[in-house]
Design a protein that fits this description.
The complex is a heterodimer of chains A (254) and B (291). Chain A has 254 residues and is an alpha/beta fold. Chain A is built from ten helices and ten strands. In chain A, strand 7, helix 7 and strand 8 form a beta-alpha-beta unit. The chains are: A alpha/beta (254), B mainly alpha (291). The structure holds adenosine-5'-diphosphate (ADP) and magnesium ion (MG).
């Protein structure tokens, strides 16, 4: 039995928006094919940290990082790394569903098309597979050419997951993927995350403690830009070491 | 309190009424004079005759040469302004830093404030001689130079309206595209421009409307010779320049020659009216889509 590899690591990571020190000396190592949840009060830096793993913060004027982010042991902030290649390996699902104003089919195959794949049979097969993996196939198989904007919020979010899966990343970053959805859709997404971790390394930001408890193997608690505690979810929720963690998970603030 | 509000309300009503009255007045003059024109010249001749020679002894009243001249210069102008304007819009939106934007935008505004007569002489004395070195059989007066310079003048209109349209696209779509591994080019032309397409189309229609109505540049650089042709290398005349030419000359008021101004004017009015309505309609549809 080989020990699981570390898929993602942060080494002494600091991040700044201009003068504002948003992330402070973060060290963490996340296991391959496990679900890691980021929790913490709003504004503590969860999204900022999540977005360093696919360098989504690069477009923000004045944003910079110090330290290292490793994907499979390689520093993704090195000069020679191409962000577009990186993001094919590290997919992302956003807080609000953001399908393109195109058909359902075009949404799912978008990532393949920009890689130059044009063959219809290949695209169709990939679309079906990704939609099945995102537990959406049965609901949309008869209306693939309809606008994605006509779907419900929950369906749109699963479409966005399918779209991310279609380019076969190995990591999936999810920033509060269910916070804009109703309870039934939320349950579907959680079920889906549970399925997906067989094949993907998942990092999920959530402000919902129960959700973190249900879906994650590991939990990281952030507070004011610092990683306060990182442990197996069970351990963290039953016996938190830090007082701040304890206060947070018992709902005393945040 | 009550009284002053009544007065203000009255003043507002008055200014609205004046605007409407002036518009109605213009349309009424245009209509009545053109009706009396069409009592002497048949609509069929006006629309099918291939020559426009109202000021000659052998009078012919076919509007087609003027329409062709107008469409030709407009087409050249849009062919110049659309690619450049759209590229600038995408550049400002996707590539330029905030500081670069602060420099480029005012510079573009300057283009829009240059008087058209200056553009006209620029076309005649700079662009035409330059183009003649590349195209030896280019006439001294031609639709090409006038169209190109008109296009340059229209660039700010397309670039700023298109930029507005692109920046109105939800930020989340750009993130979706980048998150899927799109390059900047793929993001802007594959996602942002299509999502902003109705706004961009509106900018182009307004630009066409502007080009159709443009007078000074073509009057100076395009030759004032009505000719039914799609060849941009020879002198032509547009609807607007014809109107200027006749208005400046000394045709007697009330004569048939005089009435041609209104016939040409109403043709122009039909064009720009249709274009503006089209853009209005597209804008409305587009807003519905995003609600
Ligand atoms: N684009 C930005 N520019 C400046 N400050 C930002 C920006 N985005 C986030 N911040 C700040 O960084 C901190 C962390 O934000 P964020 O990572 O979004 O927190 P969380 O996701 O935990 O709610 C907050 O104080 C926020 O105000
Ligand atoms: Mg957040």
């Amino acid at each position: 039995m080989s020990k699981k590899q570390n898929k993602l690591e942060a080494l002494n990571l600091d991040a700044y928006y201009g003068d504002f020190h948003a992330l402070k000396g973060i060290n963490i190592a996340m296991e391959e094919k496990a679900v890691t949840a980021f929790i913490g009060p709003s504004g503590c830096g969860k999204s900022t940290f999540l977005r360093t793993f696919n360098r989504m913060n690069d477009y923000i004027d004045g944003f910079r990082v110090e330290g290292q982010i490793l994907l499979d042991g390689k520093d993704i902030y090195q000069k020679e790394v191409r962000v577009d290649e990186l993001r094919k390996e590290v997919g992302m699902v956003f807080q609000k569903p953001n399908p393109f104003p195109k058909s359902i089919f075009e949404n799912v195959v978008y990532g393949l098309k920009i890689q130059g794949i044009k063959k219809k049979s290949v695209l169709e097969e990939a679309a079906e597979q990704s939609l099945r993996n995102a537990a959406l196939w049965e609901e949309v198989k008869d209306k693939l050419d309809k606008s994605a904007l006509a779907l419900s919020g929950g369906q749109q979010q699963r479409l966005c997951i399918a779209r991310a899966l279609a380019i076969s990343p190995s990591v999936l970053l999810m920033d509060e993927p269910a916070s804009a959805l109703d309870p039934i859709s939320t349950a579907k997404i959680e079920e889906l995350i549970y399925e997906l971790k067989n094949d993907y390394t998942i990092v999920i930001v959530t402000h919902n403690m129960q959700q973190a408890g249900r879906v994650s193997d590991y939990t990281a608690f952030f507070y004011m830009g610092e990683l306060v505690e990182f442990n197996k979810t069970k351990t963290m929720f039953t016996s938190p070491k830090d007082e701040r963690t304890q206060n947070y998970i018992t709902g005393r603030f945040g | 309190m009550k009284v002053s509000e009544k007065i203000i309300e009255g003043l507002l009503w008055l200014s609205a009424a004046i605007t409407i009255l002036v518009t109605v007045g213009i349309i009424w003059v245009l209509l009545s004079e053109s009706i009396s024109f069409f009592q002497e010249v048949s609509l069929v001749e006006f629309l099918t005759e291939k020559e426009w020679t109202p000021l000659f002894a052998d009078k012919k009243f076919g509007i087609m040469p003027l329409v062709a001249g107008t469409l030709l210069t407009t087409f050249v102008a849009i062919a110049v302004a659309l690619p450049i304007g759209l590229t600038i819009a995408v550049y400002l939106n996707e590539y330029a830093h905030a500081r670069m934007k602060q420099v480029v935008k005012p510079l573009l505004e300057v283009l829009a404030t240059i008087p058209t007569v200056v553009y006209g002489f620029f076309a005649l004395t700079v662009v035409t001689p330059f183009l003649q070195q590349l195209i030896p059989n280019l006439a001294g007066f031609n639709a090409l130079s006038a169209g190109i310079v008109m296009g340059i003048m229209i660039i700010p209109m397309i670039s700023s309206l298109s930029e507005d349209a692109i920046s109105a696209v939800p930020r989340s779509l750009r993130e979706a595209a980048y998150g899927m591994g799109s390059t900047r080019l793929q993001t802007s032309f594959g996602v942002m421009v299509p999502a902003a397409s109705s706004g961009i189309v509106v900018s182009v229609i307004l630009a066409i409307s502007r080009a159709v109505g443009e007078t000074m540049i073509v009057a100076i650089a395009a030759g004032q010779q009505p000719r039914l042709t799609l060849n941009p290398l020879v002198p032509i005349e547009t609807i607007t320049t014809y109107i200027v030419q006749v208005s400046m000359g000394d045709v007697p008021q009330g004569s048939l020659e005089y009435k041609t101004i209104f016939a040409a004017g109403i043709t122009l009015f039909v064009f720009t009216f249709a274009l503006n309505n089209l853009s209005f309609w597209i804008k409305k549809k587009y807003q519905e889509k995003y609600d």
